Amino acid sequence: MSDKSMKKYMKKSEIATFGIGLFGVALLTGWMPDYTATFFADFAFKGKGFDPDVMANALSVVFLVAGIVGAVCELVIGYLVDNTRTKLGKVKPWIGFGVIPLALISMLVFVAPNTNNQTVAIAWMFIIYSLYTAFCCAVESPANCFGSLCSPNPSERSSAISIASFLRSVGQSGGMVVILVVGLVMKAIMGQQQFKNAEAQGLDLIISTAVCALGLILFVMIFFTNNKERVPFTQEKVSLKDAVKVVFTHKNLLMVSLTKLCGFGRGVYGTVSLYIAIYLLGSKDLKLGLLLPMGIGTAVGTLLVNIVLKKFSTKKTFILFCFYGASSLAILFLVSKGIGFNNGLIIPFLILNFFCGLQHGNTNVTPNIMIADCVDEIEYKTGKRQEGLAYAGYGLFSKIASAFTKALGPWLLYTWSGYLASTNANVAYAEQTDATLNKILMIYTIIPAIFVVLQAVPIFFYDMVGDKKEMITKELIKRREEKGLADNVSAEN
Amino acid sequence: MKKGFNLKIYAAVTFFVIAGLLATITVTTYTSRYNGFSPEKTAVAFVQSIVETGDGYNAYKNTIVSKNYKYGDFIREYYMYPVIYAECDYEIGDDRDGLKGYNDDSFKGEKTLNDDGTLSGQVIDTMYDYYAKLMKKYKGWDNYDGVFTDYFKELCKVREEVFGDKYMTDEIMFTALESNVRTYGESLTGTEDEFDANTGIQTSVKTVGAYQKAFGEDYKFTYEVTDTVILSTSNAPWGKINDNADMLETYKTSIDDMSELFYVVVEVKANGKTIATQTVNVVKIKSTWYVENTTIDTSALYEIA
């Protein structure tokens, strides 16, 4: 590549604060869905005497509707981002100003109205969580696509995205630490029983949400003041029809998005992790033990991908990690079968779980870098730069894939595996046949492995790599220079 | 950057304004949901726990027993460990390290080692009748000392008969007692048909409770505070509390810790009609209100059905 395309644009602090910004966003958005469900189900209307069956059904619909709202918002926000042109840039205003309503709405999700009317309670859950979903999209989607704007240098951009993705994945679990610390502080101040009484009202969740929301503001403001969009936006207005068309017709972008759909069954292992802990490892308390090595593996994998990307293209890296992931899951299956379902399996299972987690670093990072490259390609072909919609399209496919995963997982476990639920009030989990246990193990290993391989298939048709990528990068720099837009892009050196 | 819009000032102002708003929302919500900051709410929560679910056991979480103890730890220390370490010259508060109680694995017999939950269930079912008898004998939970002592003694006997060993842990004791407390509550409130969410198999059958028989299937309890009186130290209740100084000592507290005493009258209504009136003394220790349980009489609340 030429010197210009290799030029470093970002200050080191900018790379760090980009990650800090994504950490802040993930701290709140990673916290909200699970704890909102808990709050709505267990605490919001405690003691009001509402029909539990009606509430349980309403909750499912609340989250289904929120999912649809989220999918629509992905596209709408993407379109609006692409039509935003300000002195601050096209993405930064959404993040920097959007966090204010996001923080406040998130807090209000945990302030249930004091009503004895079940219809009012359900209506409130619909409205407040849909509002949260919409504001979440308005901040999270632009934050995710900032990576494609942080530097015109693809190599520098990839490094920044890798580091930021790592911090984002750490941030997603940050809420678990927050609620732990909040609990310890409350116990110290109130005493153990009064803390229990407060916990029974969901008050620890309310305080933790406030801490996460404040963390969002703090970390995003650090990002907002220090980071700069360094890829100039194009001036052409894009119609909604043309914009949406890009998501479904641009080959490379579609291939990256299709990885999500083709690999939707990767996540079914989550459905059986509790049963793996109970039946294969001997205690349901080991569920956290299962998830922890995998989580650490994911974090390490995120950093590992950055190293591999320096040697291989995004395409090769993605395919390499997919085959590695499938192999590690297959080994886990074979080792488990070899040792048998007993206590001797615990240590090898947990160690192998770490190695299985490494592959998730790839799915966290590489597609984001590929989408940034696709945005360059779209700009090269059409003259229009559409980060907002490119990332929104990927987000849309992710949400559809997630819905498929949520449907497939329970079907595999409760129908296909022949799982027997306990009918004895004194026995929590019934004995399972060997055939069922074997299928539960397959749902955790072999079935996700198949989907890990399938998600690599679209990437074989992805070609924004090598000479083509280099040529497009140079051409875009040249065009910007000709239009005098490069003057707006300040370099670090 | 456009002159007049300073990113750093915007960031700082946003942070402090949002921090202020979040703090305001949190404090307001906390105050409105947490019972311990209001004498009336504390009294109602105590009465509600007993009436709504027949659960005088958990109602103690609102009382001075729970000021310095986690309620479960109080029960362990005073009523469970003396049973588990009965052969070890254990005194309340002693260090248990090195003591070999009935919770030691060496006390596990064959049936304990191989139980899949069926025998444990049998123990719990057998103990339920005894728990119901205790509720009649003591007219509820005011004499918790009698209830705990009798119940755990009987539990050891029943478990030994079923399992053929002396193995006993605090977990076994809590599981049996809390299961019986729940079943007792369900005998009042009734239960609905229940189905496993995943398989659709029916796991329990609908029952009609004593409350439903007395007040109709769709009965609704409401609670109203009809009177709240601040009692000065010259009033009789202060003296009565002082008479129970020994009991307060077991809670690691004393009358000197209490800064205020309120007399609260809670009216319990079923479908809008008054069915019981309960007086509750609540005391303030630091900033939190607790039900004063050493002098209370809640027996009427156990007879409303």
Give a description of the structure:
The complex is a heterodimer of chains A (493) and B (305). Chain A is mainly α. Chain A folds into 2 domains: 12-230, MFS general substrate transporter like domains (Growth Hormone, Chain: A, Up-down Bundle); 238-421 and 429-477, Growth Hormone, Chain: A (Up-down Bundle). Helix content of chain A is 76%, strand content 0%. Chain A is globular. The two termini of chain A are 17 Å apart. With 305 residues, chain B is an alpha+beta fold. Chain B has helices at residues 7-33, 39-53, 56-59, 65-68, 71-84, 110-114, 118-138, 144-163, 170-189, 210-215, 236-243, 245-250, and strands at 194-195, 202-204, 221-230, 258-270, 273-285, 288-291. Chain B has a 4-stranded antiparallel β-sheet, with helices on one face. In chain B, strands 1-2 form a two-stranded antiparallel ribbon. In chain B, strand 4 (258-270) and strand 5 form a beta hairpin. Chain B is globular and about 80 Å long.
Strand order of the largest sheet of chain B: 3-4-5-6
How many angstroms separate the termini of chain A?
Answer: 17 Å
Low-confidence runs of chain B? none
Domain count of chain B? 2
CATH class of the largest domain in chain A: Mainly Alpha
Structural class of chain A: mainly alpha
Number of strands of chain B: 6
Task: Give the overall form of chain A.
Answer: globular
Helix content of chain A: over 70%
Biggest chain pair interface: A-B, 48 and 48 residues
Helical content of chain B (DSSP H or I, runs of 4+): 40-55%
Query: Architecture of the largest domain in chain A in CATH?
Result: Up-down Bundle
Structural class from helices and strands of chain B? alpha+beta
How many structural domains of chain A? 2
Give the integer mean of the pLDDT values of chain B.
Answer: 90
